[in-house]
Amino acid sequence: SELIRGFLLSGMPCPSSCPPGLLALMAPGLALMATFSLPSQAGDRRALPVEKPPGVKGRTLILLDVNTKSPVRIISENFLSLQLDPSIIHDGWLDFLSSRRLVTLARGLAPAFLRFAGKRTDFLQFHNVKNPAKSRGGPGPDYYLKNYEDDIVRSDIALDKQKGCKIAQHPDIMLELQREKAAQMHLVLLKEQFSNTYSNLTLTARSLDKLYNFADCSGLHLIFALNALRRNPNNSWNSSNALSLLKYSASKKYNISWELGNEPNNYRTLIGRSVNGSQLGKDYTQLRSLLQLIRTYSRAHLYGPNIGRPRKNVIAFLERFMKVAGGTVDAVTWQHYYIDGRVAKVTDFLKTRLLDTLSDQIRKIQKVVNTYTPGKKIWLEGVGTTSAGGMNNLSDSYAAGFLWLNTLGLLASQGIDVVVRHSFLDHGHNHLVDQNFNPLPDYWLSLLYKRLIGPKVLAIHVAGLQRKPRPGRVIRDKLRIYAHCTSYHNHNYVRGSITLYIINLHRSRKKIKLAGTLRDKIVHQYLLQPYGKDGLHSKSVQLNGQPLAMVDDGTLPELKPRPLRAGRTLVIPPLTMSFYVVKNVNALACRYR
């Protein structure tokens, strides 16, 4: 037993003369993602005790080392990106994107893409006028609200000292009026969503200006999805309205990337007429030709086809699309929602089967893409914990973070280049920021990820000291560990540092001993836990015991770590998410960008 313990703690390879027991113990080996758990019976909330093997002191469950020589994956600097749904035109929030508080929150997640797309993409029409409210004739509630907001923007705009952005300070009374309007529109939007029938939306030139101003001020690159359901009699794409939008954007020299449509495999349910993969591929080829005719966008990026969950018919759709337009798009995109938001409950977010549903989808998409365009980048767009707008106190709570953080780790470890979170600000409950412009738990989780995680993904070596499963009991993957090089943008850590992030779905604490190259290094802990009496339902979080909140509209709080002494065992509390920066590892994989 002392021999076993020595090999595990040193991180040395096992010689050929190792006893069979040691080989069996070290069988987990190399993994991009490490997952462990104690055996537990369905419905049993108590974690079973770990048997202490002779010679192993304490309750160390896992010995962990990281391969520091080279990364196994390198993802985009914009890996964690954001989405805004066109519904913000309907409910009025687009007019408030110039809020200093919203810009501050978005800047915290830069660099990133900002995708403007969603269910209403294919009902969006561009109208090249500045402010249609003034030409309506009779005043109404929208008339007063829109003109009041425009007056505030004109009179109270201040240039941001750093980037010269247009930032507005909206009076409280105006925000209260907007929240009342949005609450009324929320019922309308939900009715449309559940009936799958959507009304047309108009995007004015002024609204496009505000959208681009928000993206540009926040350090986000705008991706705009054009309406693909404007069809000619022969079912080809009618590009006339898109051309008007492209010309206007080019006249303003807006740096935008483009898409065409949203979930095109579902068009039959929307309009009673389908567009097959081959036809959409031709439409994308047409859009690429259109972009090349406009100097500003002759080299613009084009992404698609943004299909839904890759079931059999959707995979066939993607195959036909790739045959025609695989070389036209710069990345292949699809979207995924874990749960039907109408039936979600807090225990759903703790199910390991649910966390793992994404793996099979990734393999299906990768198989098609590698068949037609090997090496083409793949993005997951429009990802959310729940569909149908989400559920209050669930998809916007601390509990939803388990799905979100595992999604980030899983996608990065399998080489998905970008993940676009739906949504930054929305009418439902899948968003990162609520309608009081307060950051929700998934925002703080995303902020920590952006501050600490770099694009280089590292392989980890693990050895688990868990007993064999009993008959009738199943081992579930309730402890998940991922490793990256620490972000180069974080100047608190020298290059060569490594960041671990860990999800503990057990109802008991777990212990991890760092070994090999990580042994006896100083570690900084960032432990994220729910704050307040609501537990997993909480919409507030604490970092290392301190509640997180904005300092003011222009300032995010300092994310202070808790230093751990060198060689200390990491103790992971139950039902938590945490980040650990292992300092001064001098990892070869992490020294250079």
TrEMBL record:
Q: Which InterPro entries match?
A: GH, Glyco_hydro_79
GO terms for cellular component: extracellular matrix; extracellular space; membrane
What would be an example GO MF term here? hydrolase activity, acting on glycosyl bonds
* A GO biological-process term: extracellular matrix organization
Give a single Pfam family match: Glyco_hydro_79n
Q: Which PANTHER family match?
A: HEPARANASE, INACTIVE HEPARANASE-2
**Which protein family is named in the record?**
Belongs to the glycosyl hydrolase 79 family.
Record protein name field = HPSE2 protein
- Species, as recorded: Platysteira castanea
Q: What gene is this protein a product of?
A: Hpse2
